[in-house]
Structures are given as structure tokens and as C-alpha cells.
Write a structure and sequence with these properties.
The protein is of the alpha+beta class. A hairpin with a 3-residue loop joins strand 3 and strand 4. The strands form five sheets. Strands 11, 14, 16, 17, 18, 20, 22 and 23 form an eight-stranded antiparallel beta sheet that branches. The chain has three domains: 102 residues, Nuclear Transport Factor 2, Chain: A (Roll), CATH 3.10.450; 134 residues, Nuclear Transport Factor 2, Chain: A; 126 residues, Glucose Permease (Domain IIA), CATH 2.70.70.10. The structure holds zinc ion. Zinc ion binds next to loops.
Length: 396
């Protein structure tokens, strides 16, 4: 009963005095705002340091709410956000103004999006969802796996489960993508959020934070490190730089491309008895290039100009060219400069293994089912999965 009364009084108050949305002007300080409204700035003296400090953190162009007396226009209540979860409440209490920091009230909704690409991810999602935040989030999550301008084509699909906050009927603050897939020519790349570390992983438990797979093959041992300043060459004897890493592995071990890309070269560069022997050079996004040398042979379908996917077998370990034993010589270049493939590996974070991986893959399965469900039949839709309402009325 008490709740109903509170609700009624709020509703009546809203009826009596209109609430309007304003935008905080760029160079405005809180002091000015008080002056604009004829409020004595002396009320600032009564504030504790923390509250006073908060008044300086209002971001320019923040939308905020004002309730004014419908006859006199006098400010009755203002709610000005500072960050996503707190707001300044400036209100009239029996003729004198008070300032408090209070929690922001919003509803949290979980929604599912299904979309079939017609123009671009940005344009299409803007049309379906009504704002650009979701496409911005997805673009950031998939940065290492999808080239949105080149890879994504008409009739490819996107599905996402995400959480957003709603304040006064509008999206408020950041959107959190919980799980998603992007389907390019029938191949789905999943991204599932892992709350424990705040990162996204695919359905194999590989992090999406990295462009490259950890290794291009299953190897027995690293037989030679990256030594750009030179090492004594095991066959030639002379001091030569070693611009890649050698992975020892049995003949015929499959070698995979560590990232999506285009094969720039496949074959022997000079002669098959010299240098790197059979080599595959793959070009990736953003000026990255990887080289796989001394191969025994190439996988079918891999030729100059063909597109390869991350994890796709491109060749097999051998000993062609000048090599002391069965191994893969693996090189990574960025804009033409070689770099240590193993330090790239060290830069990797959030690798899952053992129980952690097992538990996460179970969560992935669940998310996949939810994403896949209806994705093929429902084109361009947003459906509400759940809603937790904290209050739809910001002024109460
Ligand atoms: Zn080597």
C-alpha cells in the first residue's frame, strides 16, 4: 500500500510540475548553474569535501533532468549525472535548496539482436537498435578477427546478447555485450564475455584480444630463437641474423595460419635447395605478415592470392631449403620489419586452460544455444530477454 501511495504521489508530482531533459553546457560550472537559477551559492559551504568535489566532475553535454514549477518556472529539482551510477540531486526543500549525491535510477534490460547485413554493420544496427553504441562495441570486440570494411558482406549475419541501462526511456551509459556471433559466408565467429577477467573468448576458448594464435603448429621443441643481431648459422657457419623462431616437429606435422589473411606467396623463393625452401607468406590486417618456411609441402587450396582462415592448415613440416633437421621456421613481420614471434606470445593475456577452460566452454555452449536459437529465421529484430527495473521515474 505504501508503495502505491509513493508511486501515486510521484505521478501526481510529475503531473503538477513538468520534468524536462536538458544538456549540460560545455563551459558551465555548477556555481553558474546555481546563479542561473537564483540560488544562493552559500549552500556550497555546507557540503562535505567529497560532495563538493563531485560537483566539478559533471561532463560537458551530459543530459540531465529539471523539474520546474509550472507557474513560476522556479527550479524544484535537478538531477545531474556524474558517471554512470551516481547523480547530483539539487532540490528545493520548503524554500531552501539542498544538494545530495544519490544513486542514478535506471532499468537494466537484456536484449537479443538478430541482424542480416544489408549495408554495413554500423548503418544496419543504427536502424534496428536506434543507436550506434552496439555496433561500436561489436567493432571493438571483433577488431582482431574481422575486417569490417572488407570481410563483412551483404547477407552475412550478426547476433548479440547484450545488456543496456535505460533511464527515462533512453539508453544510458555503456552497453555490455554478453555474447555474440558474426557469420561471414556461413562461418560463425563467436565472442563470449568472461566476467572473471572482462575479456571475450571464442568457442574454442581462444581470447579475442589477440590477432594471432599462440603457435602455428604442435611442436616438440623450440630449436632456435629469434636473434635479429645474429647467430652462427648451423650449416653456413657464418654469423647470420635469425629472423624467426624454429619449431622442431616430425615431418608432415600440419602447419596452420596464425590469423586470417591472404596468401601472398607460395613456393620456393630462389631455388628449393636454398634458403627457406618451400615457404608460405601470409598477409594479415594492419600490415602484419607471417612466414612459414622449410615446408615439406602445401595444403590443397593454398596458392598465391587465396584467402586463409585462422587455424587453417596451409602446409606440412619438412626440411626443404637449407635446414639441419625437420622444423618450421616461423617469422612475423609488421610493416616489413621482423619481430619476435615469441614476445607476441608473451604479450598474450588471459589464456584459459584446465578446469577454467572446461567451465568456460560450458558457458559458451549455453550462450551459443541462445544465440543460434531463432537466428536463422528471424531477420533484423531486437527481443527483450529480461528486465530489472530500478525505477523508471528519475525524480522521486
Ligand atoms: Zn629458422
Amino acid at each position: 500500500m505504501k508503495r502505491i501511495l509513493v508511486f501515486l504521489s510521484c505521478a501526481l508530482a510529475l503531473f503538477a510540475h513538468p520534468v524536462t531533459e536538458k544538456v549540460w553546457e560545455e563551459s558551465r560550472v555548477f556555481y553558474d548553474y546555481l546563479a542561473e537559477n537564483g540560488i544562493d551559492p552559500l549552500i556550497l559551504h555546507d557540503l562535505d569535501d567529497e560532495t563538493f568535489g563531485s560537483l566539478k566532475t559533471i561532463l560537458a553535454k551530459t543530459p540531465f533532468y529539471e523539474q520546474r514549477d509550472k507557474d513560476s518556472g522556479r527550479l524544484l529539482h535537478a538531477l545531474i549525472p556524474i558517471g554512470e551510477d551516481r547523480q547530483i540531486s539539487l532540490y528545493d526543500k520548503k524554500g531552501s535548496y539542498r544538494i545530495e549525491i544519490v544513486p542514478t535510477r535506471y532499468a537494466v534490460v537484456t536484449e537479443k539482436l538478430n541482424a542480416k547485413i544489408q549495408n554495413s554493420l554500423q548503418q544496419d544496427l543504427l536502424q534496428i537498435v536506434g543507436n550506434s553504441r552496439l555496433s561500436m562495441e561489436l567493432t571493438a570486440i571483433y577488431e582482431t578477427r574481422v575486417d569490417f570494411r572488407r570481410d563483412l558482406q551483404k547477407n552475412d549475419r550478426v547476433a548479440a546478447i547484450y545488456e543496456r541501462k535505460i533511464r527515462m526511456g533512453r539508453t544510458w551509459g555503456a552497453i555490455t555485450v554478453k555474447a555474440a556471433f558474426i557469420e561471414m559466408r556461413k562461418r560463425r565467429i563467436y565472442a563470449v564475455y568472461r566476467a572473471e577477467d572482462g575479456s571475450y573468448y571464442d568457442d574454442r576458448g581462444e581470447t579475442l584480444a589477440n590477432l594471432f594464435l599462440k603457435y602455428p603448429l604442435q611442436f616438440t621443441k623450440i630449436t632456435s630463437d629469434y636473434q635479429p643481431n645474429g647467430r652462427v648459422h648451423p650449416i653456413l657457419g657464418a654469423l647470420r641474423p635469425h629472423l624467426g623462431v624454429d619449431f622442431g616437429a616430425p615431418k608432415g606435422t600440419p602447419v596452420v595460419s596464425v590469423a586470417d589473411g591472404t596468401v601472398r606467396f607460395r613456393g620456393c623463393q630462389k631455388s628449393c635447395d636454398q634458403g627457406y625452401g618451400n615457404i608460405v607468406i601470409v598477409e594479415h590486417r594492419n600490415g602484419w605478415e607471417t612466414r612459414y618456411a622449410h615446408l615439406n609441402g602445401f595444403a590443397s587450396g593454398v596458392s598465391s592470392g587465396s584467402r586463409v582462415r585462422q587455424g587453417q592448415t596451409i602446409g606440412y613440416v619438412g626440411q626443404t631449403g637449407i635446414a639441419t633437421g625437420m622444423h618450421l621456421h616461423f617469422e612475423v613481420r609488421k610493416s616489413g620489419e621482423t619481430t619476435n614471434p615469441l614476445s607476441l606470445r608473451n604479450a598474450r593475456q588471459n589464456e584459459l586452460s584446465g578446469e577454467e577452460l572446461k567451465k568456460f566452454l560450458a558457458d559458451v555452449k549455453e550462450a551459443q544455444n541462445l544465440l543460434d536459437y531463432m537466428a536463422d529465421v528471424s531477420e533484423n529484430s531486437v527481443s527483450r530477454l529480461s528486465s530489472v527495473s530500478r525505477s523508471s521515474n528519475p525524480i522521486n
